[in-house]
Amino acid sequence: MKKILSSVVMALPFILWAQTFTKMNNFPAPNAFCTWVFATSENDVFITSFNTHSLYTTHNGGATWNSVLLDSNVELALTDVYFTDSLNGWVVGNEQISGGRGRVYKTTDGGYTWQNVTASVTNNTGAATFGAIRFNGQNGIVGCDNGFVDSNNNPLFYTTNNGGISWTAVKTFPGASTGSSFSITRIANDPVNGTFQLTGTFHVFTNVILNSIDNGASFFVPYFEQNTGNNPLDIFNVNGTGSIYWMATHNPRKSTDNGLSFTAFQYPGLPNKRILSGFFSDPNNGYIVGDGSSIYKTADGGNTWTTLQSGGTEVFRNVFQIQNTVWVVGQGGAVYKSNNAVLNTLDHGKDNQVKIYPNPASDYIIIENASRDDIKLISVTGQLVSVKKIEKLSNGTLKADISNLNKGVYILKLKDNSYKILKD
Length: 424
Description:
By secondary structure, the chain is mainly beta. It is 1% helix and 45% strand. The chain contains one helix and 37 strands. It has one helix spanning 118-122, and strands spanning 22-23, 34-39, 45-49, 55-58, 66-68, 76-83, 89-95, 102-107, 115-116, 130-136, 139-144, 147-148, 157-160, 168-170, 181-190, 195-202, 206-212, 220-225, 232-238, 243-248, 253-255, 263-264, 275-280, 286-290, 294-298, 306-309, 316-322, 325-330, 334-338, 355-357, 364-368, 375-379, 384-385, 389-392, 398-401, 408-414, 417-423. The strands form nine sheets. It has a five-stranded antiparallel sheet, with no helix packed on it. Strands 1-29-28-27 form a four-stranded antiparallel sheet, with no helix packed on it. A hairpin with a 6-residue loop joins strand 30 and strand 31. The longest helix is centred in the N-terminal third of the chain and has 5 residues, at 118-122.
């Protein structure tokens, strides 16, 4: 008889306990300037490095690490890694030579082997260098960190709508003046709502966010700052919720309407320190990291923060959560892991009566006290997935056929609530 973890899953109040981080002393590059981390499972993790020319991978949760040399003929500064699912992923970086160009690599086997696909992005023209890459299904964007408005050789970014088979160079945006420089710092994406947000520095605006609500077909500027010195550092999206967080040296901003408007939110006052990156698992629960070995967590959308780690000398550059595991990476080979993150379960009053069972499930789940229109199922890599069928039973409950899904963990979103579903 199948072991049942829980016959009823309810939205429980978020309880924060003492969360600890452990440094991965077995990481093979103690001098690496680690720039980004992405995980497709709690075991499969990928870390880019700016100065050691390698991609670092583990397929056993950090017990052992592999140093992957993407190109033995070129020294690469790697800036970003992103996976669309457990098998297909992308890495971008730049040649570390005078006049070096950007490089794009792709894997289709979960990161074991990589192929140089730069030519398909740039069509073998231009001298663009790359800072970020993101995909919403077949729609993707590669951001340039040396773009010039209306430049043939240095476009602002490239877009694709066929999974990277072909790309289109984007050379301007509303309000941009010809010849102005534009450097894209980071890209946020939401596969559920079909949005992209690009943040960077522009010649006139100083800081700008480019927003697309049609999967990259068009862009507009919902927010800019002129000559503030408020350097943009990161932008990230909470899939399916419309919530976006924009990190900067000062005055971070938050959107709850898919990037149509932005307002200020809080993060800890850090004299002489910078907050460099963040990650939110839902609109309320998130982490930020930065100078001084700083790791902070919020459970109320950034209104208050709890210090998890601070006071050291390491500079943390990026943080990523998958299921109950959180990874933090930074300069000097800083790679930290926490196994006791709290999965996003929140108390929202009337939704406390929602019941989901069986869990784990192999063929179907029953959902009580929920509307069919409220249901979204998200993979652990942030992709919207489709169930085989949802039917309304005679007693008003919903029956979702999940027999088509692969085994693993999924997040069932019902309006603002999130529930962990185990498919076996």
